[in-house]
Specification:
Layout lengths: L10 H6 L5 E7 L5 E7 L6
Antiparallel strand pairs: 1-2
Length: 46
């Protein structure tokens, strides 16, 4: 299995996965713009 760091051109692919358990949020980037960040949403134990 090959693992690599995400790059800017990968963002459209990540957006395609956004509906599959990923929660998207916007955070201010270093240049004052906004960058997409995501985290896996963990179901709470019952």
């Amino acid at each position: 299995m090959i693992v690599r760091l995400a790059q800017e051109q990968d963002v459209p692919g990540f957006l395609a996965l956004a509906g599959q358990g990923e929660h998207w949020a916007t955070a201010p980037g270093p240049e004052g713009g906004s960058r997409q960040k995501y985290r896996r949403v963990q179901p709470r134990p019952q």
